[in-house]
Design a protein that fits this description.
The structure holds 2 protein chains of 2 kinds.
Chain A (H helix, E strand, L loop, with lengths): L2 E5 L3 H13 L3 E5 L2 H11 L3 E5 L7 H10 L8 E5 L4 H10 L3 E4 L4 H14 L7 H4 L1
Chain B lengths: L2 H32 L2 H28 L9 H18 L7 H26 L23
Helix pairs in contact in B: 1-2, 1-4, 2-3, 3-4
Classes of the chains: A alpha/beta, B mainly alpha.
Chain lengths: ~130, ~150
């Protein structure tokens, strides 16, 4: 079962996304800001990270730079999630080292498609979607 | 409105719409699994309205960047208000067996009220200023309490 780290400061966004992914068989862990995500990424070794870009303490782009600079976490794929949805946001996310980018409101099927694509590339097994429901 | 102000506004308005869409999708999935057609139908209706709000935001907000428009957010507020009211009415429309569903309907209603409050405030003062999140891009300097 793939482990997903959701980095999100908005309580409702966190609640929604974690419940929807858990329903589909993902093991979900959470961090509330960029700095906390660095600690949890090291301690929990998630298979993939969903990173909000606008975060307190340390923003998502900076957190991603730290994650990618750390040999212990550099291989974990990071998908940036943001409600900003401007072309420059995608560019900023990719320059920071994010492996992919998606916008909020989250289209879950699209996001899961991106997650499974990343997980397959990294050798982790995507969730058996039909069996998970 | 500058590009940066436009960005802030779009982000602020998209967040409650994201909550409406996300929770209604979640409710629909859970209700279908539980064999509760009434809850599923209610959630489907809210979801449809949430998607309308998302489309309206994308379409109407473009007009807000027109510097010749003296009240750029008024049109957005007008077209969204009836849809927001429909969402709130759906949330109040019935009693359902699962306490968690009632809680989620409450969250959707709160998001709808927040969107309404944001639109009201933004229409009065459309130029937003960033608060001090670490990237300096999110949240503005007005605290708006949901109705």
């Amino acid at each position: 079962m793939p482990k997903v780290l959701i980095v999100e400061d908005n309580e409702m966004n966190r609640d929604m996304l974690s419940r929807r992914l858990a329903r589909r068989g993902y093991d979900v862990v959470m961090a509330l800001d960029g700095l906390e995500s660095l600690k949890i990424a090291e301690s929990e070794s998630p298979d993939i990270i969903l990173m909000d870009l606008s975060l307190p303490v340390m923003n998502g782009a900076d957190a991603t730079r730290h994650l990618k600079a750390n040999p212990a976490t550099s291989a974990i794929p990071v998908i940036a999630l943001t409600a900003f949805a401007m072309a420059s946001d995608r560019s900023e996310a990719m320059q920071a080292g994010c492996d992919d980018y998606d916008t909020k409101p989250v289209e879950l099927q699209r996001l899961i498609g991106k997650m499974d694509n990343m997980l397959s590339r990294c050798g982790a097994s995507p969730v058996d979607f039909t069996g998970a429901l | 409105m500058t590009a940066e102000e436009f960005r802030f506004l779009k982000h602020e308005l998209r967040t409650p719409i994201n909550h409406i869409v996300g929770y209604s999708e979640l409710l629909m999935e859970e209700a279908q699994d539980a064999g509760e057609p009434g809850m599923a139908a209610c959630a489907k209706e809210i979801l449809a309205n949430g998607r309308i709000l998302a489309r309206l935001l994308e379409r109407e907000l473009l007009a807000c960047s027109d510097p010749s428009n003296p009240s750029p957010l008024e049109a957005l507020r007008i077209v969204m208000t009836s849809v927001i009211q429909s969402v709130v009415a759906s949330c109040a429309g019935g009693k359902y067996s699962e306490d968690s569903w009632q809680a989620d309907l409450g969250r959707i209603a709160a998001a709808a009220h927040r969107l309404s409050s944001l639109l009201d405030a933004a229409a009065e003062t459309p130029y937003l200023k960033p608060e001090n999140k670490t990237d300096g891009r999110s949240h503005h300097d007005r605290t708006i309490t949901p109705a």
